[in-house]
Amino acid sequence: MADKRAQQRSKYTLDRGIPGAFEGETITRRRFMTGTAHGAGAVAAAAFTLPALGFAIGPVFKSTPHRWEVVGTVDEFPDNNYVPVVLTLVPDIGEAGKTTAYVRKFNPALDTDPYDKGTPYIAISDRCVHLGCPVRWVDASERFVCPCHGGVYDILGERVSGPPVRPLDRFYSRVTGEDVELGPRFSVNSKLRRFSPRLPGEPLDGIGQYLYPSTPGAKKL
Amino acid sequence: MPKLPAPPLPAPLKTPPPLPGQGNGEAGPLEDAKQAGITVVDWVDERTSLSGAARWLMFRKVPKGTNWFYTLGSATMFAFLNQVVTGVFLAMYYRPEPAGGAYESVRYITNEVFLGQFVRGMHKWGSSVMVVLVFLHMGRTFFFGAYKYPRELNWVIGVVLLILTMVMAFTGYLLPFDQRAFWATTVGVNINGTGPLIGPYLSDFLYGGTEFNATTLSRFYAIHMLIVPGLIAALIGAHLYLVAKLGTTAPPWQKLHKRHELIETEV
Fold it and tell me: Does A96 reach chain B within 8 Å, measured CB to CB?
């Protein structure tokens, strides 16, 4: 039925007997004007919506430069216990831009993992990988303990109990002269394999590393 | 003098018309002054036809059995209006500066500004009241079956309003910028980050970067006081329009009374 009607109806306005039709014209001027008005409205709306939207989501795709910060001298850090240091992640916003790292010297007896070879200092981030509360190093039990939801980690930052989904994040370290410097943060999976920094709550074992991709802002060193 | 249609008042409240012989000829200035308000309203109404819309909105038929549970929606709206008014005035003193200005301005509001503690308290406690009322209102709608045909769209709008209320509570929590605010927001953003695939992008969007940074606080402030309140106000308008258009439902325990002549009887 519909096919038959389409066959009968010509695509030329002249054939359809529309008043004022031109030869070869296939669209009525009313339809053309309606389309033009709608198109112009869409262009005008997009002209202010798209820049505003890009403005709002732009920071997602912007990567920040790496910062290296001197946190102490080489003899300040033992190889069997942690020393807390305060790092500035984001300058000029006061306390909110600071974080704590627990630093100790590389210990061949403890840090047997092949990925850690050649790392001068082990610097563990205090950001609990459950949901981001600050963990604290408890010397007596040799554990990192989170105050919020009961996450517990051992001396390597690997999960002992509680809800955390991977070991604690770490910072790159290097020695310049007598100074110990800490660089960007990185995340590790349960084998201590290194990944670009992830947010807490994002597992990195098995399918986790694909479900939680590295965002464009988080650069690998 | 033009006159408004008489309001549908019960008979004892109506003003009786003057008895014959009581009037004293031409209207004096006192009568003219009495009529001034009506004249102004009438002038506006002649050009806008607003009185019809007002009558349509306000003088609706309500089913038998309507009770106090039906006031929860209005209560939620008044909680929102309380948030709007107190929030607008808090914005006169608040500064979204993460380097100490935000905390200091909240301290100033609480300790120094006249009635500051009171207005901030209204906003803070009012937000909890609004969340509680939203849930009670939703429970009323659910248990009375008021979400059923033809009111499904109003339920959907209500769910969006519930989510937006949660966004308001989440973004507002950061603004005092004390320890509790900072860590609660850290946890909240990281919960958003646990969504597979889009989670990391969502948390980067909320932070405005990969970490809590200089623009995060103003970002939350803009969402809290500009984007979401506008959406909520617009959706409340749509919600109320549908309530007025579709009417309210009778409570489920209300028996359906058939009119006597419609009941079939055996002859």
Answer: yes
